[in-house]
């Protein structure tokens, strides 16, 4: 039955029932019945629906196989339920394509292993310890993580970077597809924001249902993200034990080295006791006065991009596990790149 896929495609396109019904020349009641599997559209109607939603008929006819659970996302003012539905629909579609590929090549998706964590986390200092446990489990030491998304993918986290999520009211999402963790970030954000958001969402995956009631999960995940990217020993090694002031040029260089924003470095300095609250407030006020809380000096940190899925599609194609039409279907919005490669390979 096509109901679930039709509903998901409509929400992914940001269309109301009435808007879709107007686009295909049907009543919104008919669309509602299709979505609830009370009616089955004929072939002509299927073609119209697929065209209006910019999906294939095969996609609408394919059974839904994935249900996202434990969905957590950071919302800001202006974040609507319509936008949430659109995001979930798009993420579910992308995850389905990933899992369809990894079913064919299961060794291409490493198993995600949660490090042994305390059942109850009472303080933000204990959140720091969880970040250290996660780094230890992944054998990261105290050094900067140059390719964060690649590191996540190497440890079984599906990371999606999409321009659908550039809306300022949205700042990342995490969920589970079975026992596979999923994190989504925007491809349009500067690299340091991508990295912090990815780590924040990893915090949701690890900390959820472990926090004491007095700990706010969003703040705990922010603390986890900072500690995962720059653990306390690295903060002390870079800045010293106690400071009255930090030269912003230091922070520009540290941002380039660790992929953590200058503002986030200020918070790490405060959280690790390098700056007391008064000195932190003075520096943060200076940053705000100069507009550095919005646009930092020294340029943006480079974007990061997930590659494992795309590379695995090409591997499956090379090993004749899938054909080119299936590769195009799996790649979705990335299919133009495959077509360019195919045209180049064909020669003049």
Kindly describe this structure.
The protein is an alpha+beta fold. The chain has helices spanning 3-12, 17-24, 28-35, 43-53, 57-61, 81-104, 124-137, 148-154, 191-207, 217-229, 232-239, 248-258, 262-271, 277-289, 308-318, 324-331, 335-346; strands at residues 68-75, 158-162, 170-177, 180-186. A 4-stranded mixed sheet has the order 1-3-4-2, with helices on both faces.
Layout of helices and strands, plus pairs?
Layout lengths: L2 H10 L4 H8 L3 H8 L7 H11 L3 H5 L6 E8 L5 H24 L19 H14 L10 H7 L3 E5 L7 E8 L2 E7 L4 H17 L9 H13 L2 H8 L8 H11 L3 H10 L5 H13 L18 H11 L5 H8 L3 H12 L2
Helix pairs in contact: 1-6, 2-3, 6-15, 7-10, 9-10, 13-14, 15-16, 16-17
Q: What's the helical proportion of residues?
A: 40-55%
- Sheet with most strands: 4 strands, mixed
Q: Which CATH C-level class of one domain is it?
A: Mainly Alpha
Order of strands across the main sheet? 1-3-4-2
Query: Residue ranges: pLDDT <50 for 5 or more in a row?
Result: none
- Please give the number of β-strands: 4
At CATH level 2, the architecture of one domain is: Orthogonal Bundle
Produce a short descriptive summary.
By secondary structure, this protein is of the alpha+beta class.
């Amino acid at each position: 039955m096509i109901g679930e896929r039709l509903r998901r495609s409509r929400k992914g396109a940001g269309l109301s029932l009435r808007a879709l019904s107007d686009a295909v020349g049907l009543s919104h009641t008919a669309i509602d019945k299709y979505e609830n599997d009370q009616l089955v559209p004929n072939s002509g109607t299927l073609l119209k629906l697929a065209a209006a939603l910019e999906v294939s008929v095969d996609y609408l006819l394919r059974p839904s196989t994935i249900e996202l659970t434990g969905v957590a996302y950071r919302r800001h003012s202006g974040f609507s339920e319509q936008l949430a539905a659109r995001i979930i629909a798009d993420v579910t579609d992308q995850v389905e394509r990933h899992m369809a590929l990894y079913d064919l090549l299961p060794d291409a998706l490493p198993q995600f292993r949660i490090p042994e964590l305390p059942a109850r986390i009472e303080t933000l200092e204990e959140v720091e310890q969880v970040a250290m446990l996660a780094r230890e489990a992944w054998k990261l030491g105290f050094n900067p993580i140059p390719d964060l998304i690649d590191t996540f993918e190497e440890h079984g986290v599906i990371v999606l970077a999409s321009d659908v999520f550039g809306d300022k009211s949205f700042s990342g999402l995490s969920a589970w597809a079975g026992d596979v963790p999923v994190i989504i970030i925007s491809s349009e954000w500067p690299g340091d924001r991508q990295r912090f958001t990815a780590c924040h969402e990893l915090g949701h995956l690890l900390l959820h249902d472990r926090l004491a009631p007095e700990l706010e999960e969003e703040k705990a995940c922010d603390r986890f993200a900072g500690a995962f990217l720059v653990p306390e020993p690295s903060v002390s090694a870079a800045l010293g034990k106690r400071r009255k002031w930090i030269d912003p040029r230091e922070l520009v260089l540290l941002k380039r080295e660790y992929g953590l924003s200058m503002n986030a470095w200020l918070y790490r300095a405060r959280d690790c006791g390098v700056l007391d609250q008064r000195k932190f407030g003075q520096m943060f006020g200076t940053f705000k006065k100069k507009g550095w809380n919005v646009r930092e000096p020294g340029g943006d940190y480079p974007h990061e991009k997930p590659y494992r899925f795309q590379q695995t599609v090409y591997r499956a194609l090379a090993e004749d596990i899938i054909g080119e039409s299936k590769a195009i279907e799996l790649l979705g919005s990335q299919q133009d790149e495959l077509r360019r490669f195919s045209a180049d390979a064909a020669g003049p």
